[in-house]
Amino acid sequence: MRLTTAQALVRWLLAQRSEALDGREVPLFPGVFAIFGHGNVLGLGSALEEHRHELPVWRGHTEQGMALAAVGYAKATHRRQVGVVTSSIGPGALNMVTAAGVAHANRLPVLLLPGDTFAGRAPDPVLQQVEHFGDATATVNDAFRAVSRYFDRITRPEQLLATLPQVARVLTDPADCGPVTLALPQDVQAETFDFPEALFEPRVHRVPRPRPDPRALADAAAVLRGAERPLLLLGGGVRYAGAAGRALRFAEEHGLPVTETTAGRTLVPHDHPLHAGPLGITGSASANLLAAEADVVLAVGTRLQDFTTASWTVFSPDVRLVTLNAARFDAVKHGALAVVGDADAGLAELTELLEGWRAGAEWSDRAVAERGRWDAHVDALRAPGTEPATYAQVVGVVNELSRPEDYVMTASGGLPGELIGGWRATGVSTMDVEYGFSCMGYEVAGAWGAAMARPEGVVTTLLGDGSYLMLNSELFSAAFAGHPFVAVVCDNDGYAVIARLQEGQGAAPFNNLYSDCRSRHAEPPRVDFAGHARSLGCVVFAAKTIDELVAAYREARKAAVERRRPAVVVIRTHPATWTEAGAWWEVGVPETLSGSADVAEHKAAQLRYLAP
User: Where do the Thiamine pyrophosphate enzyme central domain residues begin and end (predicted)?
Assistant: First the structure.
């Protein structure tokens, strides 16, 4: 078939299918997010227009925002479907680098198709081209190399024959999954080649389930059999493998208390008798207490990020770590006994090797007892009576009114700690806390993607005023396209959680809360978040108290669905009231700071903490 590079790429996208967790066959690439410019409007844009009724194209309003929407889509579909994002060259392309970092850090698939300068170079330098004096082959798209699992620049049409199978491999591989970047020089997009028809034959991609090595499984079983206080830790890999049910049956059969990472939240029903709560800095005191006493930790599908491990202080120094992970890179961390393989298959085979073995009942009973104490603590934090409202109270309202089919999200600031530690699961795999990259603005853009992927329930995203101001344009994108979700905007006058970190380590308050920022005004202006959201096509509700928030959030849920657009709820919140899980986090406290005894004291405490 004689086609342009762009036409061939679009036809290939249409031919790719995926198997969802429930066995349904769905499009691997369900749609394209696009902002057109001179680097992609004629080549790829024309090819997409030819198939506009088969492959939906959604217009974004920032390249970063629409790429983050694609990331949110991938998370909401458990990595079984992949958003495609295209931009022009230069600033349009570079705007997507942050989103690529989000996808890379969180091991989520997204296909980025930035336009590029002319491969033929005849018209160089072109508009928006950055020239490198010592390397004529370099373009701004080389910036994607550091945040892509797979990168290629298509300088000849026939390169697609070799590249596209690798693209599909990375996007669907449980170990290597992440962002793929194909830089598309604008002249090459329009060049033709006689492509074989076989390239466009329908193909169903089924995520492989690699079986662990039997010897590693036997070693892991031996370690677990010798444990007196074993703990099961579930991460995002359990979610993407569809192994939540298997993990719970494993815990029940062997009496293991269960805890979750950030990416693994809502895998376990909140009131399950073995649920110890979420682990780590933003987790729960209950899980952290059990982790400190555990002699063996079986960590399944987690990359063991510092917020989960509390900078590797949440576990006992003598703990034996056993990991089950599809990625060897993650499995070998911290000297663990590594079992490399699929979470579902690995737990099934490990269960057979552990037949007849159970942890002691006294240890198993600790999970529900400690979590009960944590629940009582969260209940006290959620109780009404304080003004302005606290984050814990806001999360409590959303939690109480949510249903099993609903989906909740956040990404940055203080809300991850409130949502991870305080949320009580209403349904399985119904939370997305982007805390791998903690990207401000993901809350809005990712919610747009999640709303597209999950039309059966209400998507609610919680964000602070800082995140809203960082990236709000996709509220209009979602309103224009007709994708409803609810955004709860908590206005606490600045970057409050960083002010907490700053002052909590002895530093002076500076440049985080508006009261500590430089301004030439005696009374600086404030943002009218309600008016701004309304101007972007959203339905808006304002609340001053928790009682008003209950009514506003209930109405927002209804209005979003009925009017097919985002509904924004705005409420003032307290800037310095937080849910504390009682874990430690290592940050760069200065060894010396002129005139600050508090900083020196905190540095000395840190060094004592780190001492052997």
Answer: 218-350
